[in-house]
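Data deposition worksheet. Section B asks for the primary sequence of the deposited chain exactly as it was used as input, without tags or linkers unless they were present during the calculation. Section C holds the resulting structure in token form. Section D is free text for depositor observations; keep each observation to a single sentence. Incomplete worksheets are returned to the depositor.
Section A, Depositor: J.P.
Section B:
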Amino acid sequence: MATARALKEFPELNARVLDDAYVKIKAINLGIAVDTPKGLVVPVIKHADGLSMRGMVRAVDDLATRARDNGLTPDDLAGKTFSVSNPGRRGTLVGGAINSQPNVGILRLGTIKKRPVVVEHDGEESIAIHPVMYMALTYDHRVVDGVHANGFLYRIGELLEEGDFEV
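Section C:
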């Protein structure tokens, strides 16, 4: 959900590279990496920006279940405008992902692990244990510069920390 929202604010990441140009795509269709017994597949959640949290969870669960049961259709695999990858069942804290051309970017999420972090409360610093997740963005530098890429990642972090998602 956070990725879909951030893509609305950073539309240059929801784009495709053509021969000698690029096009921003209005529809936000998220490719979601799914580990299956036959290998990785990336089914697509169409119009992800229009889903509630419940709708997003249902879409991910439906696509992942059908992917693992070999029940995806060609339409389920078509039309992605941006991809999200995850650490899978044997998660790692940090990792990278290779962008799927002609799309401009892919977000790789790390495993969420509890880590000691410095927190500030009423002007005092202390160490607390919080869940931490690292994100890595692979993007086509012909379309997206580092400032926008960092802004996009920062915005996703803000959205996740705010946690303001309609159920």
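Section D:
The CA atoms of residues 12 and 144 lie 7 Å apart.
The first strand starts at residue 15 and ends at 17.
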